[in-house]
Design goal:
This protein has about 450 residues and is an alpha/beta fold. It is built from 11 helices and 23 strands. Strand 12, helix 7 and strand 13 form a beta-alpha-beta unit.
Length: about 450
């Protein structure tokens, strides 16, 4: 057990910047107080400990408050893609067995149209008798000013399909995000005045991880509701943003902006979500952008391997060595390890703890997958550098092995089962807490 991360940071650095949205900056003390009040309002709306709370919100303050309020309420969050239709959401809501769905004005029509919609709460003022506007509720915020975190408890359900078919809910524990945050810090480094710009949706593991990691590190998040290339480029030029997470399409758009020289404060661009095309990497590196290619997956709570800028320049297309706590193998269809340079299937192993599912979810395991106990078939193309920098550019499938489990899973449609067991091994390279980044003068936010 440990103290919840936000209340701990509110004590450690109360006046430090925690969350920047537009022109507004919330300190850790202010975010802590707002989270306690938000948790009290949710409790007043009938949210009970041990239930699953659905979140259908864009990147906004209330989405961050819901993330930080979860441990104080003792609930598991189910994060839903705001672009899905009511019919698509219906299956996910039923699979997660949500008791409550928190939405905003823009997603309210979708929420109310879900056939199996639970009780709907709206974070914006609306006049609709079918739902409860959270802003009209109040509660005792003192009861939600802090809580304990059990690293083995389920924190979030994130639905992911990869390329294998219908989305399934990956149940991620607090320990999964904690281990991922520590592994990322050991690889890329953490400095006290870091500011991480987040334009990735919070309902994806990449965006959610930025919120949680920054809270654990005591650094700031610059949260954007949507990706706006001109506005973000202007922010990068004018504000001390040191870290930036992008998918390749986002980087393309930033490089197309006038005067796309690397911003003055930017220390690292984590580029993932899809294989980065060679021409994009060449263009960005030639312009001087500090690109770190990365590979991760939802079931591993984001990052699995990352190549730092010097490695990207030396070996474009690689995503580097596995992070600490993760192991990677490249195997053939019989599960035999492949030598460097030979194509194969990727196995990923993580030491993240197994999620203890709520009793009501136990019967839903075919649609809710605890990342600690299943092989998950994946189909993607991505080179991964292991101990010998193997580069399997065209995998038929990828499987994920968390915690050393050896449970079987049905193969993806159209593919054959491979790699039926075995303990994953692979090289792990770390550079200590400060990572590779050189020390630099402190700059005010």
């Amino acid at each position: 057990m440990m103290r919840d991360w936000l209340s701990a940071q509110a004590l450690a650095r109360p006046d430090g910047a925690a969350l920047i949205i537009g022109a507004a900056t919330l300190t850790y003390r202010a975010l802590h107080e707002r989270t306690a009040a938000f948790a009290a309002r949710l409790a007043a709306a009938g949210v009970e400990r041990g239930t699953v709370v659905g979140v259908l919100l864009s990147n906004r303050l209330e989405a961050a408050l819901a993330v930080h309020a979860a441990p104080r309420l003792g609930v598991t969050l189910a994060l839903f893609n705001t672009r899905l239709t009511p019919v698509e959401l219906d299956g996910q809501v039923r699979a997660a067995e949500c008791r409550v769905l928190v939405c905003e004005r823009d997603t309210l029509p979708t929420a109310l149209a879900i056939p199996s919609a639970p009780r709907v709460l709206c974070v914006d003022p609306v006049n609709d008798q079918r739902l409860t506007p959270i802003n009209r509720l109040s509660g005792d915020s003192a009861a939600y000013r802090e809580s304990d975190i059990d690293l083995g408890a389920p924190f979030a359900i994130i639905f992911t399909s990869g390329t294998t078919g219908m989305p399934r809910g990956a149940v991620l524990t607090y320990g999964a995000f904690f281990a991922s945050a520590m592994a990322s810090a050991y690889r890329i480094g953490v400095l006290p005045h870091d500011r991480w710009l987040c334009a990735l949706p919070i309902y994806h593991v990449g965006g959610l991880s930025i919120l949680l990691r920054s809270c654990l590190y005591g650094t700031a998040v610059d949260l954007w509701q949507r990706f706006d290339a001109p506005a973000i480029m202007e922010r990068l030029r004018s504000a001390p943003v040191t870290l930036l997470s992008l998918v390749p399409t986002m980087l393309y758009r930033l490089l197309e902006q006038p005067g796309a020289a690397p911003p003055p404060y930017l220390q690292l661009v984590l580029l993932g979500g899809a294989a980065a095309p060679p021409d994009l990497l060449e263009r960005a590196l030639r312009a001087g952008w500090p690109i770190a290619t990365t590979y991760g997956l939802t079931e591993a709570a984001s990052q699995v391997a990352t190549a730092l800028p010097e490695e990207v320049r030396r070996k474009p297309g690689s995503v580097g060595r596995p992070l600490i706590f993760s192991r990677v193998r490249v195997v053939d269809e019989q599960g035999r390890d492949q030598p460097p340079g030979v194509y194969g299937d990727i196995l990923v192993q993580s030491s993240n703890p197994h999620a203890r599912l709520p009793r009501r979810c136990a019967a839903r395991r075919r649609r809710l997958v605890s990342h600690g106990g299943h092989w998950l078939p994946r189909r993607r193309r991505r080179p991964v550098g292991g101990a010998a920098a193997q580069r399997p550019d065209h995998q038929r499938r990828r499987e994920y092995l968390p915690g050393g489990s050896r449970a079987g899973a049905a193969p993806a449609s159209g593919s054959r089962r491979c790699c039926r067991g075995g303990r994953a091994i692979g090289g792990v390279g770390t550079a200590g807490w400060r990572g590779y980044r050189p020390a630099r003068p402190n700059r005010e936010r």
